[in-house]
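Please, structure for the following, as tokens.
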Amino acid sequence: MDKFIYYYTGPVQTGKTTRIAEWTKKNNCTGIVAPIIDGKRHLKIISSGEKKLLETEANENSIIIGKFKFDRSVFEWGREKLLAEYELKPEWLVIDEFGKLELKDEGLEPAISRIISRWQKEKNINLLIIVRDYLVNEFIQKFDKHGITFKEFSI
């Protein structure tokens, strides 16, 4: 098995999640995707299909980034589920996505960092992380200090 962390990238709203979700149906994958369903962003667990509404109205439990308001408790649920998905030891673990929140150690962080740390020791699965095109350099810089090699993934 190659010893890379794969990343899949592209501009905002260009179908990255849709393409990856379709790809996961044909491959041995677990992880989390963030599809837009009925105009709202959700978190969906690949192995079970379980999903939760991520977008919310502004309240004391919301995280606001740009024009979006996300439910902090759904991110907490997503982090727990993502760590559990890693334990299933799939061929591929998909993480959708590494974005502005994760750069600030919010959103799906610190679960992503914990998974990468474990992967470095075990390297027994492929990691595929969706990254916004304008954040690829920051993503790589965040984890490059660990001597990880990154490779762009294409479908």
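The chain has one domain: 4-152. The helical segments are 16-24, 72-87, 100-103, 111-122, 136-144.
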